[in-house]
Specification:
This protein is an alpha/beta fold and 445 residues long. The protein folds into 2 domains: 209 residues, Spore Coat Polysaccharide Biosynthesis Protein SpsA, Chain A (Alpha-Beta Complex); 196 residues, Hexapeptide repeat proteins (UDP N-Acetylglucosamine Acyltransferase, domain 1), CATH 2.160.10.10. The protein is 18% helix and 30% strand. It is built from 7 helices and 39 strands. The strands form 7 sheets. The chain has a 17-stranded mixed sheet that branches. A 9-stranded parallel sheet has the order 13-16-19-22-25-27-29-32-35, with no helix packed on it. Strands 5-9-6-10 form a 4-stranded mixed sheet. β38 and β39 form a beta hairpin. α1 crosses α2 and α5 crosses α6.
Length: 445
């Protein structure tokens, strides 16, 4: 990967490669997941625990102090698996697209064949770089030979070892004691184990899988980009089949975890990331990015908006060029306009902030209008403070609200006001600092 970061920590679809594989393993009927870690072990463990939770029983992490090949990696788990009499499924941390259904069929095949070892293989048009599956005259298993160690004739074989195995655990570790680093790399190959077992009369089963891409590994950033494209295309195609319109599917990105309702229209250059949920009938315009957010029905997100960790109720409008983040919530039929940033705030039902405004740590009631250029001055240099704007308030353009401050129901701030004290309900305030100029009557009508 030409990177300072461990390969399995590189992300696909917003998650490290190791997380994709761990999810598949966790979905199977299993007793325990063992994860062999070496380079950047702490970071790999942290990534897995974020996925599985902090429960120590969710996974066992085994340290491979020296990286001396796949056989050596499995040897490292020997102490943890001592005395285990079970079936061991071996997966690679850089094969993220393998499906749970494929793995289950493979395990079932292993049991049905009564094998000590089963190997999942595929056939490639160009098998360069992969270990070849060498069969005997009866088309049964003979051996696996790595590409670098293969003869010219063996390199013509198209059937390759995917690196996914099932083993009888006891027999596996007995065989591991016999493997030698007799290869160009001086490594202990797990691929030597099936031949050792076969030589002692054990049954070796070969499971030929038809989808080579599904069980392919990622070795370069070019591979990573290709897999990202595959994942994206599959996700978008699935959404289109469920009733979502993509104006240009080749220029949209949608997380495989996102949910989008029927009759939504997604324009080009939209990014929908993480666990975002979008209700039916929404329109997402070009250039917008939505991450880990919840959006109701019939919402319009105009061009070039950023929405992160926020919630937007039904029939709202956002943008263009708006930024919502840090647990912001827009209640039904509210509107955020161009060049408005909202952070850690709640906008009440039917309220609006249409132009050039910053609303941070604010609670805004229903039916309130925030004029252009308004700023909630929430930070005093040491701490953040809250601004409360109650129902049916009109905030004039260029108002500065110096938190902590409350603007009472039905009040108005004149343009250019600097509000440093609480504003009583039904009042007009103006000036720097703002003072009450008069009381308003019937302000909520």
């Amino acid at each position: 990967m030409k990177s300072q970061k461990a390969k399995v920590l590189h992300e696909l679809g917003g998650h490290p490669l190791i997380v994709h594989v761990t999810r598949k393993a966790h979905a199977l009927d299993h007793q325990k997941i063992y994860i062999v870690v070496g380079h950047q072990a702490a970071e790999v463990e942290a990534a897995v625990r974020r996925e599985l939770g902090s429960d120590d029983d969710a996974a066992v992490f085994v340290i491979q102090k020296q990286q001396r090949g796949t056989g050596h990696a499995v040897m490292s788990a020997g102490e943890a698996l001592r005395g285990s009499n079970s079936t061991l499924l071996v997966l690679s941390g850089d094969v993220p697209l393998v499906r749970v259904e494929t793995l289950q069929k493979f395990v079932d095949y292993h049991h049905a064949k009564g094998a000590s070892c089963s190997i999942l293989t595929v056939k490639l048009e160009n098998p360069t770089g992969y270990g070849r599956m060498v069969r005997d005259a009866s088309e049964d298993f003979a051996r696996i030979v790595e590409h670098k160690d293969a003869t010219p004739e063996e390199r013509l074989i198209r059937e390759i070892n995917s690196g996914i195995y099932c083993f009888d655990t006891t027999k596996l570790f007995n065989a591991l004691r016999e493997i030698k680093p007799a290869n160009q790399q001086g490594e202990y190959y797990l691929t030597d184990v099936p031949a050792i077992l076969a030589a002692s009369g054990e049954k070796i089963a070969i499971y030929v899988h038809q989808d080579a891409r599904e069980v392919s590994g990622i070795n370069t950033r070019a591979d990573l980009a290709e897999f990202e494209n595959l994942l994206r295309r599959g996700t978008i195609r699935g959404l289109m089949m469920e009733g979502v319109t993509f104006i240009d599917p080749s220029h949209a990105y949608v997380s495989s975890e996102a949910q989008i309702g029927q009759d939504c229209v997604i324009y080009p250059d939209v990014l929908i990331e993480g666990n975002t949920v979008i209700g039916a009938g929404c329109v997402i315009r070009s250039g917008s990015r939505i991450t880990n957010s919840k959006i109701g029905t019939n919402v319009v997100i105009k061009d070039h908006c950023v929405i992160v960790d926020s919630e937007i109720d039904s029939h709202c409008s956002v943008g263009p060029f708006a930024h919502l983040h840090t647990n912001t919530r827009l209640e039904e039929r509210s509107a955020i306009g161009n060049f408005v940033e909202v952070k850690k705030s709640r906008m009440g039902r039917g309220s609006k902030s249409k132009h050039l405004t910053y609303l941070g740590d604010a609670t805004i009631g229903e039916g309130t209008n925030i004029g252009a250029g308004t700023i909630t001055c929430n930070y005093d240099g040491k701490n953040k403070h809250e601004t409360i704007i109650e129902d049916n308030v009109k905030i004039g353009s260029d108002t500065m609200l110096v938190a902590p401050v409350t603007v009472g129901r039905g009040s108005i701030t004149a343009a250019g006001s600097v509000v440093t004290r609480d504003v009583p309900p039904d009042s007009l305030v103006a000036g720097v600092p703002a003072v009450v100029k008069k009381k308003l009557k019937n302000s909520d009508k």
